[in-house]
Amino acid sequence: MTATEAKPFSTAAESPETVTEQAPARGTDREAAERSAVERRRDWRAQYSTRLFVTDLVLVTGAMALAYLVRFGPNDAVTAHGGVSYTGVAVLFVAGWVLSLQIAGSRDYRVLGTGVQEYQRLFQATFGWFGAVAIICVAFKLDIARGFSLIALPVGLVALLIGRKAWRTWLVRRRVRTGEHSSAVVVVGSGHRTSVVVRELLRSPASGYRLVGVALPEGDQLDEDLHEHGLPVGRLHDAVPFMRRLGGDTIAVSGGEALRGIDTKRMSWQLEAGKEHMVLSAGLLDVAGPRMSMRPVAGLSLIHVETPRLTGWRALAKGLMDYVGAGLLTIVLSPVLLVVALLVKITDPGPVLYKQQRIGQSGKPFQMLKFRSMVVNADQQLTDLLAEQGTSGTPLFKIQDDPRVTRIGGVLRRYSLDELPQLFNVLIGSMSLVGPRPQVPAEVQLYDDAAHRRLLVKPGLTGLWQVSGRSDLNWEEAIRLDLYYVENWSMTGDLQILTRTLRAVFGSNGAY
């Protein structure tokens, strides 16, 4: 590396002006800077929110029109009790529904693009509005056809979810491919704390935060593994002007001893209201926003973190979803189950089902079911194959190009059809539809204290790491995703994982 290339990571006292002068060497020029300035002036948040508003209005109107036609036909003179036209009722329904989506913050840019809060707010707004209508009808003895509402609610909600999913897919692709529709972020703080935040932002380009630089104390630097990214480095005392020179609009404070509370205040005072923003890292990785709340106490801003719980109504709701979902899936997929069982039986001698001891909730062992996809004596060959691959002491071991897999087994594993008998595990209560995948006792013995938290919930037929990388994730990444699930469970999250499972199964990589 030349002296010029190492310049951005110099630990010597270096002026921000000197750092900025290196920008042309990193491929930025005047034309790119002008384009960046134009993009900054254009408020993408307002534009995107407007698109969502128009889409919501069209979809809700369509749902109400469909409900009207199904319930009353093309007759436009139908009236409710008291002579009120149902056309007017439909218009009020549309206006109230769209307004509820706005009040619930479903179009707030802070929840767009990632996470489940956007979908949760859709549910809250929809059921809140229809609940309010029901209360008003009871209180004022209004007789509105229930069938009208019962058609409009599910149709409209499904349409809204599909519409938001389509816009989210578009938004994420733009963020990942071009960096557009994202906040341009400069991370401020001490070297190691800043490095942690930088890694997370680089890992998640779809999150809506595009990293453009870092501001560090004099004599500090990023961790060595981040040098290859060539991020411009400024100094703490000049963080806000440095951000503006890079075309940024957001300061992300990572913290550290070198950054005092008064320094953070002064930076916030320099930001242009409504156009430039500040976000603070709590230093709590893998703890989702709904578990955190800000509480002012004696002049301090304290972050309260709720203890993760899957008890009471939450446990009841998850259990109900498991039993109902597994029951329906078993009925719907029964022809597939029969065909696969027949193929396994006629293509390779041996039993149709493979039973293996796995570790479930609270460390209790159970027999997990699968369609047999390997030769009969596969377990006896495992030790030698792992030793040959060099992963005999690694949790979450996988064998690529496994010679034990049968011809039909390769197809079953590619599309996860071998996992379908685990629906019966869900029905008898040893597994859940969604959760950390169950592991064999030998793997559990290799757990550290953090990994043991996977056992706080029932293991799942599918899980967060299955839809985030399938079999290609290493142990550290997989355990991190599983712990995130355990710490931040939600019903909406489970539904999202189930829908993403189909895409992961039928994607280009599949499983092995």
Short recap of the structure:
The chain has 512 residues and is an alpha/beta fold. Helices cover 48% and strands 12% of the residues.
SSE blueprint:
Blueprint: H1 3-6, H2 16-21, H3 30-41, H4 44-72, H5 86-103, H6 117-139, H7 146-178, E1 183-189, H8 191-203, E2 209-216, E3 233-235, H9 239-245, E4 250-255, H10 261-270, E5 277-280, E6 292-297, E7 300-305, H11 313-332, H12 334-347, E8 353-359, E9 365-371, H13 378-389, H14 407-414, H15 422-427, E10 432-434, H16 441-444, E11 460-462, H17 475-487, H18 491-505
Parallel strand pairs: 1-2, 1-4, 2-3, 4-5, 10-11
Antiparallel strand pairs: 6-7, 8-9
Describe the structure.
The structure is a single chain. The protein is α/β, with parallel strands linked by helices and 512 residues long. It has 3 domains: 3-40 and 183-281, Rossmann fold, CATH 3.40.50.20; 44-176, no CATH class; 313-505, no CATH class. 48% of the residues lie in helices and 12% in strands. The strands form 4 sheets. Strands 3-2-1-4-5 form a 5-stranded parallel sheet. A two-stranded antiparallel sheet has the order 6-7. Strand 1, helix 8 and strand 2 (209-216) form a beta-alpha-beta unit. The two termini are 40 Å apart.
